[in-house]
Amino acid sequence: MSQKSLTNLTKINKKEFMQTIQTALSILGKNNLTMIMHGSSFPSLDEGNTGFGSPNSNAARLFIDYISGIFNSIQLGPAGKTKGVDSSPYTGTAFSNNTLFIDISELTSNKWSNILSTATFENIVLNNPNKDINKTAYSYIFQHQEIALKEAFENFKRKLELKDKNAIKINMNFKNFVNNNIEWLETDSLYEALSVKHNNDYWPLWNDESDKNLLNQKDEHGKKEACQRIEKIKKEFADVIEYYNFCQFIANEQKEDVLKYAQEKNVKMIADRQVAFSDRDFWANQAFFLEGWYLGCPPDYFSKDGQAWGFPVMDPEKLFNVNGSLGEGGKVLKLIFKKMFRENPGGVRIDHIVGLIDPWVYKKGTKPKAEEGAGRLYSSPEHSELSKYAAASIENIDFEYDPDSEFRIKNLNNEQIQKYGSLIEKIVIAAAKEEGCDKQNIICEDLGTLTNPVEKVMDAFDLSGMRVTQFVLPEKPKHPYRGVNVDSKQWIMTGTHDNQPVLLWAQSIDKDEARAHAQILALDLIPGENAQYRETYTQNLVNYREELAKAKFVELFASPAENIQIFFSDFFGIKDVYNKPGTSGDQNWSLRLPNNFEEFYIEQVKNNKALNLPDVLKRAIETKGQNFANKNADLIEKLESLSKQLID
Predict the structure, then answer these.
(1) How far is CA 583 from the centre of its chain?
(2) Distances (CA, A) of 617 to 53, 96, 267
(3) Is 153 within 8 Å of 167 (Cβ atoms)?
(4) Average pLDDT of 170-178?
(5) Which of 83, 123, 167, 459 gives the lowest tally of CB atoms within 10 Å of its CB?
C-alpha cells in the first residue's frame, strides 16, 4: 500500500507544514479540528471500487495518513446496518455494524484465508455502475456485497472442514466475538432468521403474530413459550444465524484494525448516534417503547403539518424505575451508548438532542399537530395522556404560547431541570465516564429551535452544542450562529451533511443576501483599526463568491470556538450536496471523495475552490489586530509561503 501525505504533490516539507498549522491552531485557541466524513463517502483504491466507501478499508488508511498531523479526528456518520430500500444511515441498527463497510478485497487475502475468490471481487469492481464517478451505487452494492459475503462464508466453512490452519484461527476469534457480544448479537441474528422465514425484513408485515411479538411477552407463560420457539428457530435457521454473526465478526475485526491504525496516527474517530431506532431494534425492544406513540417534529415554516418521522418513543416508565434507577429500557439504551463510546475514543455526536430531553410525540394515525393530540413528552402537564410523564407543572406553562412553542415552559427549578436531564446524566454521561470518556467527548446536535428545557439541561450539564455559520441571520447582531457570538465550548462549522456545501451556498444566494452576509463578515474579520477597508472587502465578497466562501472559513478559525468541524465536501471544494432532507433514493447520501483525492485537492486549491488552510489561518490571525499580527509575524510569513506553494 503506497503512503500519501497532505503535501507530497508539492515541494512543501510535510513536517514543516504540520508544525506550522498546529502552531497557528494553537495560538488561535483551537483544540479540535475534525473532518466530517460519513463511512460511505470514503474513497476506494483505484483497483478496488466496489461502489461503496468504507472507513475500514486500505483506502481509509490512506485518507487517515492524508489528514494526520492536521486534523485530529474524523466525525463519522451512523455505522449501523441499513436496509436495501433505504440508504439513509440514520435508520441503521444500534448494535449491528453495516456490513456494506466490510472491505471485501481483504477477504481475498491470506489474512482471511482467501475465503473470497479474486474473480468474484474483480467482477463486482468491473460492473460497478459508478466506478468512474464519485458516487456510491447503493442498490448495486447492497445486492453484490451479499453475494460476495455468502461466498466467503461458504468457503470459510469448507476450509474449516479441510482443517485449514488459518481458518481454524479465524474460527477461534469468531467464537470469542460471538460469546463477547451475545447480549445484542442473539436478538439481531434472530431477527435475520425471521426475515428469511417471512421473506421480508420489515417485521410489521410478517403474517405471524407470534414472530412479531417473540420478545414482547407480558407474562411468564408467554416468555416460556417464546423461549421454546426461539430454540426451534435457532435450529431451523442455524446457518442463517451463523452467517449473520460471521458477517458481524468480519465487520468488527476490520473496524478495530482501522481504529488502532488511526490512533497510531493520532486521529480519533467520533461516532454518530441517531435519534431513530431501526426496525430490528424496535422489534427486539417493543416492551420498552411507548405503545401507539411516535417521535416527530411540530409544524413549522417548512412543514405546516409537522414531520411524522414514525420513530418509536422509549417509554419513560421503562427508562427509569420509581426510585430513579435505570429500568430495563434504560439499561438497553445505556448499552448502546457504552458500545459507541468504547469503540470510538473521539466521542459520540448525538443527533437531535431534543429527542433525548424534550421530544415532540404524536399518536399513531394522526398528524404531529397539537390539535390532533401531539405534544412534548415531558412538557405537557395539561395533556390527558402525557401528563403523567411531565417534568414541568401547570404553573410552568405560559398559555400565551402554543404547545409547540420553545417559550411555553418557563421558570423551571433545579429539580425539574434534573428530571428533564435524567436520561442525559444517568445514561449518556454515565456511559461515557464508564468507558473512559468525559463530557467533552459528547457533541450535541442542537440545531434549529430549542425549547427552554433543552437549553436549561445543556447549561446544567455543560454540554457542547453545534453552531452552523451558514444559518446565521445577518440582520440579527446577536444571532447564535454568528462566529463572534459562538461560545468557546461549542463546535462550529460552515455546514453539516444536511447543508449545501459552503461554495455552492455562496454562489447560489442572491446579491442582496450576499451583501448582508459580507457586511457582517467585514465587521467581524476586519479589525477596527482597518475599518476603512470594510466596504472594499464587502464588495469583494459580493463580487467574488469564492472569496465569500473563504471568508466563512476564516470566520470559523477567528471565532472563540475551540472546536471546529469541516465537512469533506467543503474542504475539497465539491459543490455536490450529500443529503437533501425529505428525499430518498440512491442519489441521496451518495457523495464520495474521489479516489485521486490528493491530486483533486491540489487542483481545487489552485482553482480557489478547496480550503487553502494556511491562507485561511493567516487571515484568521490577522483578524485579531495589528499587535497580535506583529507578535506572530514569523508565523504569518510561514503560512503565506505555504499557501503560495500550494497553488504554485
Answers:
(1) 18
(2) 31, 41, 21
(3) no
(4) 98
(5) 459
Q: 229: Cβ–Cβ under 8 A, 6 or more apart, which residues?
A: 210, 214
Q: Which helix (H) or strand (E) holds 342?
A: helix 328-343
Question: What is the percentage of the chain residues whose pLDDT exceeds 90?
Answer: 93
Confidence check: pLDDT of 5 > 50: no
For 5-104, strand residue ranges (E) read: 32-36, 73-75
Q: Is the pLDDT of residue 3 over 50?
A: no
CATH architecture of the domain with range 31-273: Alpha-Beta Barrel (3.20)
Listed in sequence order, the DSSP H helices in 199-313 are 209-212, 220-236, 238-264, 279-284
Instruction: Identify the CA nearest to 252 among candidates 33, 149, 102.
Output: 102
Residues 6+ apart with CB under 8 A from 508: 500
Using 50, 70 and 90 to split pLDDT, how confident is the model at 303?
confident
What are the residues facing 36 on neighbouring strands? Answer: 75, 567
Q: Which of 158-172, 263-277, 294-308, 469-483 has the lowest mean pLDDT?
A: 294-308
Whose cell is 476469534? That residue is: 173
* Cα end-to-end distance, the chain, whole Å: 28
Cβ contacts of 203-209, under 8 Å, gap ≥ 24: 203/279, 203/282, 203/283, 204/279
Give every CB contact of residue 196 below 8 A, 6+ residues apart in sequence: 237, 240
pLDDT of residue 7: 45
Number of H helices, E strands in the chain: 26, 12
pLDDT at 4 over 80: no
Decide which of 26 and 438 is more confident.
26
Determine the average pLDDT of the residues in 117-124.
98
* Cell triple for 50: 466496489
- CA separation, residue 541 to residues 367, 472, 530, 602, 614 (Å): 44, 16, 17, 23, 19
Cell 477461534 identifies what position? 172
What are the backbone dihedrals phi and psi of residue 367, each rounded to the nearest 5 degrees, phi first?
A: -90, 155
- Strands 307-314 and 375-376 turn out to be unpaired
Segment 218-222 mean pLDDT: 91
- Cβ atoms of 428 and 467 within 8 Å: the answer is no
Give CB contacts under 8 A, 24+ apart, made by 301-310.
305/367, 305/368, 305/369, 306/360, 306/362, 306/367, 306/368, 306/369, 306/374, 307/368, 308/362, 308/367, 308/368, 309/276
**DSSP-assigned states of every residue in 594-623:** -TTHHHHHHHHHHTT-S--HHHHHHHHHHT
CA distances from 185 to 189, 190, 211, 624 (A): 6, 8, 18, 54
Q: What does the domain layout of the chain look like in residue ranges?
A: 1-30+465-648, 31-273, 285-436+444-462
* Partners of 71 in the β-ladder: 68
CA atoms of 39 and 59, how far apart (whole Å) = 12
The whole-angstrom separation of Cα 342 and Cα 437 is 9
Q: Cα–Cα distance between 388 and 165 in angstroms, integer?
A: 61
Percentages helix, strand, coil for the chain (3-state, rounded to 5) are 50, 10, 35
The pLDDT of residue 77 is 97
Determine the average pLDDT of the residues in 371-378.
97
With cell 499587535, the residue in question is 627
Give the C-alpha separation, 358 to 113, whole Å.
51
Cβ–Cβ contacts within 10 Å for residue 637, how many?
A: 11
